Automatic annotation (TrEMBL):
It comes from Kutzneria buriramensis. Keywords: Membrane, Signal, Transmembrane, Transmembrane helix. This is Glycoprotein. Residues 1-36 form the signal peptide. InterPro entries: TonB_box_CS. It comes from the Bacteria. The chain crosses the membrane at residues 671-690. Residues 702-742 are annotated as: Disordered. Coiled coil: none annotated.
């Protein structure tokens, strides 16, 4: 028996039996009764759910749930006989909802399969609509008999080429049920939760050069598509305009001031950078129309400013760009451009998180820098933060000096990423919350008209059913005085603006702020340092935008514009090199150099002479008025005479930022320097000493002769007198002492 069992013939019969059984099973499976094969086949069809009706479900509506969307073949094989059904999971609590948002759920009740598409080629897409009974008991019902939140799955089966029937696609959404026909309803809270909806209008930065005279330059023309009749920003604005009247005061527009500035520039005419050069932009009329609509929508409505260019405040603060963080909070642009006063002191950082260093930028430097005219609107009194980062109960304040915290509902925010139905489900679970509920989409939010309408209409339904109470954001910001003080929690984001990108922006900001601090308004001019420097700071905000998270190349490209602006400003102040040498007639003769200031404000500069042997000058600080070149006097000390070259440079008063280019100046000094005076003095002293010694010796010798008796001498021998012989006649005569030995 063992030999028979192990024989090739026996093994072959077993394999054939297994294959035959599998084949029979495959042939007898029908889509309505088969369970899908768990394989890589289930990812061949991408399911996009566009709408679930009704949202939320109430007993006053028909006993039917309908799901619409699209099926797209994203695989490499044709799929035949695609069929679709709905599946329902068990009722969820808050933890179950969080889990359902992150991974697929298991169905406990299934509808019947319905035909979706006879054939789908790779890359092909079709629309689908499926409707099933919600409450009644039947083969095509989800049998929902209690209110609550349920996971709702869309399952697609089909036959890929070279394969059998399999699950080829799956998508999960949520189904909020407030009440069911013939059944109960969710218990209403004694006090409906106060609810506010934030409606962000923002985009990534596009502006390179701002101008309202038709000379603006944009990095690309993508914003024109977003402003077109079916574009993203147009859809958001249209949904806001069509919001239910009951939410009029509960919706607050969160607008990026940089977006408004960009639209103003586009409205006047603009050009776009391309590899082939600058070309005319196509969005002038779109920008003009959209901005006009916004101006007409905001009177009497809630508006507040996002950080300028949606700057990544936390990354910039940790990089040391404190003044730029403060500048991002100035919201004067909205008041000027839209003619409406936004909520003062309100800000909303990306992700609703606040680093302690960012909080310090809000508070610790208030007396030092926030009182400057450039930052006069930067004080923060209320900040919208993720509830997960702020412990305690309302009302709460950050630290001793910090702003009031308005918590953003994290569950609703994370659910919103899965669509409006998921967000409404989260709202339903939090309807009995004692804390206000702030619905906060992403700053750059992509929502279809249907999704935006579904969210707002669903909030209105929950309000009509007394589960929510629409509340103005201003009311949340002006409640009771906070008695609880906490430190903000902060979790570093993997996609945050990188330290390299933020550090480069911070370095440029240091020089820009340094230059700003060296400026002052001319008495007879209306131009202020703020007006001169604001374009550079605006460009720095665009370079520090959260849009460049995870993209250092794009951040570096955005930084090129403010870098160029800053270099241009620095070049407007400098020294003109003289065409001929400058003569210094004395040791302390002033050195006169010609300086220029082409800016419209005066600038205080530090003048520095490069150290050189023989000439020194202590650093001096002088104001250079705007206008024509003029002479600047440098108090120098010359220690030697001669001709030499000195290098003179200008910088801001801190010395950290150079202005213009260093100038090389040829000098000619005819003055006796210190060394010459010392040498001359020493020589005079030696000469005086030698002369004194000689006089002393003569006097001593004379005294000696007077005291000594005369010596006795022999008869005087007189040498014969000779007539002097001229040198020329005796030269070379042997024996003569003047002979030339050459």
């Amino acid at each position: 028996m063992s030999e028979l069992a192990s024989s090739p013939w026996s093994t072959g019969k077993k394999l054939l039996a297994v294959v035959a059984a599998a084949g029979v099973a495959a042939l007898t499976v029908t889509p309505s009764s088969a369970t899908a094969q768990e394989s890589d086949q289930q990812n061949r069809i991408k399911i996009s759910i566009t709408q679930v009706t009704p949202e939320p479900v109430t007993s006053t509506q028909p006993d039917t749930v309908q799901v619409t969307g699209t099926l797209a073949n994203v695989g490499d094989r044709r799929v035949s006989n695609a069929q679709i059904r709905l599946e329902r999971g068990d009722r969820l609590d808050e933890n179950g909802l969080r889990t359902a948002l992150s991974k697929p759920q298991t169905g406990v009740k299934f509808s019947e399969f319905q035909p979706a598409a006879p054939s789908l080629a790779p890359g092909q897409q079709v629309n689908f609509t499926i409707a099933v009974t919600l409450h009644a008991v039947s083969n095509n019902s989800l049998e929902v008999d209690q209110p609550g939140v349920y996971p709702l799955m869309v399952n697609v089966n089909g036959v890929p080429d070279f394969g059998g029937t399999a699950k080829i696609g799956e998508a999960t959404t949520l189904l909020p049920v407030l009440s069911v026909p013939g059944g109960g309803e969710q218990q209403k809270p004694q006090t409906p939760a106060k609810t506010t909806v934030l409606w962000p209008l923002a985009d990534r930065p596009h502006l390179v050069t701002a101008d309202t005279a038709g000379n603006a330059v944009l990095a690309d023309d993508d914003l024109a598509d977003s402003l077109a009749p079916t574009g993203r920003l147009t859809n958001l604005l249209a949904a806001y305009e069509q919001a239910p009247p009951g939410l009029t005061q509960a919706i607050c527009l969160a607008i990026d001031p940089d977006l408004v500035a960009t639209l103003q520039s586009m409205s006047a005419g603009y050009r776009v950078q391309t590899p082939a050069g600058l070309v005319a932009g196509k969005g002038q009329s779109y920008a003009h129309a959209w901005l006009d609509r916004l101006k007409g929508d905001v009177p009497g409505r809630c508006v507040f400013a996002l950080p300028g260019a949606d700057a990544d405040l936390n990354a910039l603060a940790r990089a040391g760009a404190t003044s730029l963080v403060q500048y991002a909070l100035v919201n004067n642009e909205l008041k000027t451009a839209l003619g409406v006063a936004p909520l003062s002191g309100m800000t909303w950082p990306i992700d609703g998180q606040l680093d302690p260093k960012t909080l310090a930028a809000f508070t610790d430097n208030s007396k030092k820098t926030l009182d400057t005219s450039l930052l006069s609107g930067a004080k923060v009194s209320s900040v919208l933060l993720s509830a997960a980062t702020v412990p305690g109960t309302d009302p709460v304040q950050l630290g001793d000096k910090g702003p009031r915290v308005i918590r953003v509902d994290d569950l609703v925010t994370s659910a919103l990423a899965a669509g409006p139905t998921a967000a409404l489900s989260a709202l339903q679970l939090h309807a009995g919350s004692s804390l206000p509920i702030v619905i906060a989409p992403p700053h750059v939010w992509t929502a279809s008209p249907a999704d935006a309408a579904t969210l707002l209409n669903g909030v209105q339904t929950l309000a009509d059913q007394l589960y929510l109470a629409p509340t103005a954001l201003a009311a949340l910001a002006s409640g009771p005085t906070p008695t609880s003080k906490v430190a903000p929690g902060y979790g570093e984001q993997a996609t945050e603006l990188s330290p390299t990108a933020a550090g480069n922006v911070a370095q440029a900001n240091t020089h820009a702020w340094d230059l700003y601090n060296s400026m002052d308004q001319e008495p007879a001019s209306t131009v202020t340092p703020d007006q001169v420097m604001a374009p550079t700071f605006d460009a720095l905000l665009r370079a520090g935008s959260g849009a460049w998270r995870g993209n250092d190349a794009a951040a570096a490209l955005a930084l090129a514009a403010p870098d160029a602006m800053l270099r241009d400003l620095q070049s407007q102040v400098g020294i003109m090199e003289p065409k001929s040498p400058i003569t210094l007639a004395s040791q302390d003769s002033p050195l006169l150099v010609t300086v220029y200031n082409r800016l419209q404000v005066r600038v205080k500069v530090g003048v520095k002479l490069q150290p050189l042997n023989g000439i020194t000058a202590a650093p001096s600080y002088q104001w250079i008025p705007a206008g024509l070149p003029r002479d600047l006097q440098i108090n120098a000390n010359v220690a030697r005479s001669g001709r030499f070259t000195v290098v003179v440079s200008l910088a801001t008063t801190s010395g950290a930022t150079e202005l213009g280019s260093p100038a090389r100046i040829d000098l000619t000094s005819t003055a006796f320097g210190t060394v010459n005076l010392i040498i001359t003095g020493l020589a005079a002293f030696v000469l005086f000493a030698l002369s004194g010694r000689r006089i002393y010796r003569r006097i001593a010798a004379a005294r000696k002769r007077r005291t000594e008796p005369p010596a006795e001498t022999d008869a005087e021998v007189t040498e014969p007198m000779h007539t002097p012989v001229p040198e020329k006649l005796t030269a070379g005569v042997p024996g003569d002492e003047r002979s030339n030995d050459r």
